Amino acid sequence: MSDSAAPRGPSAFDPGTTTDLGGKLDYAGYLGLDAVLSAQKPLSSPPHHDEMLFIIQHQTTELWFKLVIHELRAALAMIRNDEIESSFKVLARVKHIQSQLLSQWSVLATLTPSEYAQFRHVLGPASGIQSHQNRLVEFMLGHKDERMLAVFRHLPKVHAELTAALEAPSLYDEFLRYLSRRGLPVPVEVLDRDVRRAHERHDGVVDVFRVIYENPESWWDAYEMAEKLVDIDEAQCLWRYRHFKVVHRVIGLKRGTGGTAGVGYLRHIYDEPFFPELWDVRTTIKEAGR
């Protein structure tokens, strides 16, 4: 190559760059890109341009769910072991993952009703309600509903994983148990409740959080943890709301695939808090000078 044809300016290519990769681990191999990038299989015939968007949107969502589950499992173990401060970074990461999930809805919102109508039929009974990872996240955060297990009866391994999560204490349960071990008066009936059911608001838990919020210098770790949980709860609410609005925008009031109520169901759940006492305590906190 002549000097005039030589590339100019900065380049990622350096004389030390490894180019002999035969038989060695490379980028695509480490990430399993052959499997990842060949997993998009549109079913519309003739192929509809926008089905690729629909598939990739949901596949990337499932990858983020997988990471949320990975992080929540770590946080649960830390709280059980009284390593609560170690969980702060993990839960902050969950919040940032939720931000990514929230922003993704703007991409799917570019799908118009007429475009989706061209390939919606190929989904058959497939529906987002069948996302076992989304259900697992909900169970781990405390939104338990045993009826949802029926959707996964045909997948024994998944059914068993969800059953285990249903029967295990949620992130909130573990935090309340931690507060009790620290000497705060968490009501016994809350600590001994049936964890297979969703947590129900309790005035006694509101009182515990009022102590924490009015005395943060004495309960700094609990105070910080409470705010981390509010971050996650708010982000999950926003994600649900965005889901509701995008579905409404794309299919209106039609029933969802898989026989779900569609927008009607999403409207019902988007503002259900996972940690209700952490919201209610804000009304009870005394103001300085009063």
Features:
mainly alpha; single chain; 13 helices; 290 residues
Give your account of this protein's structure.
With 290 residues, the chain is mainly α. The protein has helices at 27-31, 33-37, 51-80, 87-108, 113-117, 132-141, 156-167, 171-181, 188-191, 203-214, 220-251, 263-269, 276-284.
Tell me the major beta sheet. Answer: none
Note the overall shape.
globular
- The low-confidence runs, each spanning 5 or more residues with pLDDT under 50, are none
Radius of gyration: 24 Å
Kindly estimate the percentage of residues that lie in beta strands according to DSSP: under 5%
Number of strands: 0
Decide which structural class fits the backbone: mainly alpha
Sequence of secondary-structure elements = HHHHHHHHHHHHH
Helical content band:
55-70%
Output mean pLDDT. 92
End-to-end distance = 81 Å
Count of alpha and pi helical runs: 13
Short description:
By secondary structure, the chain is an all-alpha fold. The protein has 13 helices and no strands.
Layout of secondary structure:
Elements: H1 27-31, H2 33-37, H3 51-80, H4 87-108, H5 113-117, H6 132-141, H7 156-167, H8 171-181, H9 188-191, H10 203-214, H11 220-251, H12 263-269, H13 276-284
Helix pairs in contact: 3-4, 3-6, 3-8, 4-11, 6-7, 10-13, 11-12
